[in-house]
Amino acid sequence: MKSVVIFALVLSLFSCTEKKKEKVLPYIGNFDIEYKTVDGKEVADTVYPKMIDFQYLNQDSVMIKSSEMKGKVWVADFFFTSCPSICPKMTKQMKRLNEMTKDINDHIQYMSFSINPTIDTPTRLRQYIKAHGITSKNWYFFTGDEDKTHDLGINHFLIFAKEDAASAGGYAHSAAFVIVDKEGYVRGVYNPATDPEPVNQLEKDLRKLLKYEYDVD
Description:
The chain is of the alpha+beta class. It has one domain: Glutaredoxin. The chain contains 5 helices and 11 strands. It has helices at 2-19, 87-100, 122-131, 146-155, 196-214; strands spanning 32-38, 41-47, 55-57, 63-65, 73-79, 108-114, 139-142, 161-163, 171-173, 177-180, 186-190. It has a 5-stranded mixed sheet, sandwiched between helices. Helix 2 crosses helix 5.
C-alpha cells in the first residue's frame, strides 16, 4: 500500500512539472489585462494578441490559408520585388537563414508578403525567386489585397509597411524579420534583417523556442 501511495505522489509531481513549459522568448505586442475570480480572489491575467486568419496566393498561384500552416513556427518578412534598396539584402539574409536551419525546416514555415501586389503577381514572384537562386520548399512568397497586407504587417506582424511616394520604389517598410509561434503569438522581431547579426540571433532564438517549448532538437 505504501509503495502505491509513493508512486501516486511521484506521478502527481511529474504531471505538475510537465503541465507548464518555460517560455524562453517574450511575447511581443500590445497586451490587455483581463480580471477573473479564482478561489474567491480577483487575479489579473495578461492577454497578448494572436495572429488573425488570412489567405494569400503564393508563387505557384495556389491560395494558401493561414490555418494550413498551423503546427509550424513562422518566420516572416514584408517586401516587394521592385524594391531598389533593402529588399534584396533582406531576401539574401532570409535565404541564408533558411539554409542555416535546414535540419529543423520541417518545423518552420518561411513567408514573404509582397506589399505591392499590383506588380507582384505569382509570375513575378517566381521570377524573383529564380533570380535569387531560392530552392526552399518551406518558403512561400505571398501576394494579395494591398490594404489588408499593410494592415497585417503593421497591426499583427508588427512590421511597418505602407505606400509612400517619397520612399525608394514608392513604398516604405521596416527591414525586420518576425518569429510567430505555433499558437499565433509574435515572439521576436529582428531588425535590421539586412545585417547578419540580428539574423544570427533569430536563428539562435528559433532553435531555443523549438527545443524548449516544442521539444524539437
